[in-house]
Amino acid sequence: MMKKQTPLSRRTFLKGSAMLGAGWALAACAPTAAPPAAAPAATTAPAAEAAAAAPALPFEVAPEAMNPLGLEAGKSVEGIFFEGGFGRGYLDNAAEIFRALHPENEMTVEGIVRVGEQLRPRFIGGNPPDVIDNSGAGNLDRAALVAEGQLLDLAPLFNAPSLDTPGKTFGETLFPGSQNDGKWGGVQYELMMAYTVAGIWHSQTLFEEKGWEYPKTWAGMLDLCETIKSDGIAPWTYQGRYPQYMNFGVLMPLVYKNGGMQVIIDIDNLVDGAWENPAVLTSLQQMQELYNRGYIMEGTEGLTHTESQAEWLQGKAVFIPCGTWLENEMRDMTPDNFNMVVKPVPGAQDESTYASVMAWSGENFIVPSQAVNTIGGMEFLRCLMSKENAKWFAQNVSAIMPVFGGTEGIELSSALASAIAIAEASGEDTFNDNWDSWYTPLSEEARDRTGDLMTGRITPEQWIEAVQAKADEVKADPAIPKYERSA
Q1: Which residues pair with 365 in a beta bridge?
Q2: Which of 106, 298, 300, 324 is the S-S candidate for 240 at Cβ 3.0 to 4.6 Å?
C-alpha cells in the first residue's frame, strides 16, 4: 500500500512561507530575466559555451555544500522539462546556478509539451534524460513509472546539504508536507516544485465596475450568473477540450462541500459504490446547471485551455476555473488593469463551506533510474529548489516554490494576493483528491464524461454510471497497482 497522501496543513504552509511581508503563491500547470514569451517548443542551451559564460554565484556556498552528491566533473546533464504555464525562465535560471557551481559540467535545458508522447520511447529504449519535469497534459503515467521501477529514490538529494541555506539539508528547506504527494509507498520518487490552489477566477476591475459581489453559495452563483447573462456577457467558460479543469476546479470542491472529506477518501480508495454517494450526484447536478441555464460561453467546448483563457481575458466570459498557474500562463495576453483574482468555489448548500479550497503539490520533477547521470539530475534539482531560484520564481512567475525564505521581499500581484487571502481564510480546511493521479484510466473517463455533461449529452446519473463502472474496472484489474489513504 502507498503511504497515505496527507494534505498539507494550510497553517503549516503559511508559517513555512514566513509571510515576511511577502507571502506565497501557488502554481501547478507548469519557468531569469523578464517573464519569457512563448519559447520554441524545444530549445537547448549548448553546454560548453554556457559553462564558460556562467556567472559567479550570487551567494556563498559552504564547502560541504559544493558537491555533496559527488557529481563527476566533465559529465554532462540532460534536462527535458514540460514548458507550460510557468514558462522556462526558472529552469534556465536554475541551469545558470548549476553551471556556476559546476563549470566543468555541461547542462542542457529543453522545453517540450506532451511529455509522455515524446519521452516514452526513450524510457522504453533505456536511455531517458537525467532529469524531467513530468507535468502538463499528456504526461507520463506517474503510477506506471513507479510500478515499473523507472524512478530514482530521491533520498540522497533530500539528505544532502542545502545549496544556500547553511546548516540545513535540502529536505529541511522545504515546507513540511509539501512533498507528500511525491511519495509512493513511503519512497520519495518525485520532487514537487510548486503548490497550487484551484478556484474560480474573475476580473476584480470588472466586478468593481459592475458593482457585483462574489457569491458565497452556489445558489448565489446561479443568481449572479443570471444577472451577468442579462448584461449581455457569458457568465462562464472553461478549458473546453480539457474538461478535467471543471473536475478539479468545480466538481470535486462541490463534492467536498456537499459531502465532506470521507466521500473523497472513499473515491480515492476505490470503495465500492463511492461515486454513487448522493453528494456526487448533487454536485454534478449543481455543476450542470451552468449548462442547463445557458451560462456557458458559446463555443467553449472546442477551445483549448489557452484559447478559452484568452476569451475570458477579453471579457467574453466572467468566470473560469483554473489553478494558480493561470496568471503566468496568460501573462502576455492579460490586459492592463484586469486585476485577476481567484476565489473558492461557493458553498454548496450554505456559507459554512465557502472558505474551503482544493490545493495540492504539483509540477513533479523526476530522475529516471536508468538515466546515465542520475547524480547530475539530482544536483540540478538541488539548484532548482534553492532559495535563490525560489525567489526568482516568485518575482518573475508570481508563483511560489515551497522553499523557506523563497518569498522574502516580493511584491504581490492581485492574483498572488488573492491566492494568499483564500489560503489564509481556509486554515486547515483544505483538501485534495488522489484518484486522478493514481488511476489514469479513471481520470480519463471522468474527464471525457464531464465533457459530455457540460454539453448536455449525458445526465448526472449517466456520468455516475460510467465513472463508477470504470472505477470498478480499475479495482478489479490486478495489473493496476492500488493505493490507499486514510485522511
Answers
A1: 133, 191
A2: 300
Phi, psi torsion values for 136, nearest 5 degrees: 85, 170
Which residues pair with residue 77 across a beta bridge?
107
What is the C-alpha separation between 196 and 470, in angstroms, rounded? 28
**Which residues is 183 bridged to in the sheet?**
188
Give the CA angle between residues 294, 298, 304 to the nearest 5°: 125
Report the alpha-carbon distance of residue 53 to residue 97 in Å, rounded. Answer: 12
pLDDT at 201: 98
Please, what is the average pLDDT of the chain?
Answer: 88
Q: Is the pLDDT of residue 176 over 60?
A: yes
| Half-sphere exposure (Cβ direction) of 379: Cα atoms closer than 13 Å | 28
Count of other CB atoms within 10 angstroms of residue 102: 24
Phi, psi (deg, nearest 5) at residue 462? -70, -35
Grid coordinates of 262: 470521507
Q: What letters, b where the CB count within 10 A reaches 16 and e where it falls short, cover 384-419?
A: bbbbbbbbbbbbbbbbbbbbbbbbeebebbbbbbbb
- DSSP strand E in 90-247: where? 107-112, 131-133, 183-184, 187-188, 191-203, 234-236
- Pick the range with the lowest mean pLDDT from 41-50, 138-147, 358-367: 41-50
DSSP-assigned letter for residue 190 = -
Looking at residue 407, what is its pLDDT?
Answer: 78
DSSP state for residue 247 in the 8-state scheme: I
* The pLDDT value given to residue 390: 92
Q: Tell me the torsion sign for CA atoms 472, 181, 359, 319.
A: negative
- Using the predicted structure, report yes or no on whether residue 410 has a pLDDT greater than 90: no
> What's the rounded Cα separation, in Å, for the pair 407 and 395?
8
Query: Is residue 12 classed exposed, middle or buried when 0-12, 13-18 and 19+ CB atoms within 10 A define those classes?
Result: middle
Residue 472: all three cell numbers together: 470498478
Please return the burial class of 478, using the count of CB atoms within 10 Å of its CB with bins 0-12, 13-18 and 19+. exposed
